[in-house]
Prior knowledge:
This protein is about 45% helix and about 10% strand.
Amino acid sequence: MAADLGAWTSTAVTAAxxxxxxxxxxxxxGDELGLTRWKINRLLAQARExxxxxxxxxxxxxxxxxxxxxxxxxxxxxxxxxxxxxxxxAGQLAEVGRAASRYLAELPxxxxxxxxxWGRTMSAVAEHIPEGWANGVHVVLAxxxxxxxxxxxGAAGIAESIAAAAGGTAEIxxxxxxxxxxxxxxxxxxxxxxxQVLEPARQARVAIFGLGALGRDSVLVRSGYLTEAELxxxxxxxxxxxxxxRFVDAEGQIVDDDLDARVLGLTRDDLQAKEHAIxxxxxxxxxxxxxAALTGGWINVLVTDRHNAHFLLKYAGEDGPT
Length: 322
C-alpha cells in the first residue's frame, strides 16, 4: 500500500511539474507518461487536494478590469473578461481559455445543459476547466462536428472533458458542420439523432463557443469543410470570420445565404435567446471577427485578451481607460 502511495505521489508530482512549470497540455503529459488524459486530469486535481500544488491568486493591476468595463459598456454586453497579454500565441490562447473556463465555473447558477462548439479555442477552454466546476451538466454541441477529412476536430473530446469535470454527460451533433446541399442539412435536422442534440442546444440557457478567423489555417478548412477557393470567395464577399460556422462580414451579417443554409447548428436568433452567449477568442487574427460578433449581436459575453480589447475600443472610436 505504501509503495502504491509513493508511486502515486511521484507520478502526481511529475504531472504537476509538466503542467504548471513546463506548460504542457494534459494530452501531451499523458503521451509522455503513458496515461490517458482523464487520468492526468484526475492526478492534477488530486495533487491540488493533497497540497502538492498550491495556487496563488494574484489580482491584476486593474487595467484588465477597466478595459473589460469599457468594452462591456460600449458594446452593451452582459459581461466581459479581459486577460493580460502573454509572450506568444500559445500562451495567449491558454490564458484566454483559462479565463473562459473560470468564468463558466463561476456563473451564479450553473447550467443544467451547456451548448459548446469545437476547435482550438474551445480545446483551450476544456483543457483548463476546473474539476467539479458544476454538478451533472449535460454538454451538447452547438454545431456539426463530423469531419469531411482526416483532420481531427476534437469535438467529442472537448464536450466530454467539460462534462466529465462536472460529473455530467456529453453528446456530439452527429452530422457535418457544413453539408454539401441545403436540403441535406434540412434532412439531417429532421433526423431524430440530430434533433435530440440540436434541440437541447437551442434550449440551453448558456452557450460557450470560439470565434473563427478567416484564414487558410481555419479549422473549417483543415477539417475539409471549405476549400481555399471557397475561402477566397468568402473573403471577396467581405467575410471576416465565422460564428459556429456561419460566415459574417464586418457588420456581423451573413455574407452567403446559400452557404449559410448548409450550416448545421445554432443560428444568431438561437444565440440571442441565451442568457449567456459566451464568445471566446485570443490573438490578433481574431480581432475582426470579434468586432463583427459584437456589432452583429451574436454574443453577450466576451472573453479575450488585452490587445484585442484595445483594438475593439479603437474600432469603436474610443481611446479606452487611461
